[in-house]
Amino acid sequence: HVQLVESGGGSALAGGSVRLSCAASGYTFNTYGWFRQAPGQEREGVAAIDTGDGSTYYLNSVEGRFTISRHNAKNALYLQMNSLKPEDTAMYYCAAGPGYNCGGSRGRYIYWGQGTQVTVS
User: pLDDT per residue over 22-52, tens digit each?
Assistant: First the structure.
């Protein structure tokens, strides 16, 4: 079976850092991504990475602050979040999809984790 489990969420002060992890099992997909959803807002794509060539996508508002990476042997996904801002507060989800260059297109991801809360104040 396919399973994605996020961890690492918590509280941080503005300007601080949080590192999220996603443990994947069951299959290796072509694209993995991080999404977030704040109260009253739609779920938005934060970052994505293709497993084939390592190409990445970032939401404009997190470009230069967040870094997505993978450890292929562990089938693990990470999101390093630096210079955090209060507007980064959201539930963060990892996701996987069979396509390439899925970016922040929510509909192209098939499997989703349960989410981990990040609160920045």
Answer: 999 989 999 999 999 999 999 999 999 999 8
Round to whole Å and give the CA distance between 97 and 110: 5
Distance CA 74, CA 30 (A): 15
pLDDT at 97: 95
- Contact by Cβ (8 Å): 24, 32: yes
CA distance 9 to 108: 24
Instruction: Evaluate whether 102 touches 82 at the Cβ level (below 8 Å).
Output: no
Classify the phi-psi angles of 26: left when phi > 0, otherwise alpha if psi is within -120 to 50, otherwise beta.
Answer: left
For the record, the structure tokens of 101 come out as: 């260059």
C-alpha 103: how far from its chain's center? 11
Backbone angles phi, psi at 31, to 5 degrees: -135, 135
How many other C-beta atoms lie within 10 A of the C-beta of residue 56?
14
Q: What are the φ and ψ backbone dihedral angles of 88, each rounded to 5 degrees?
A: -80, -10
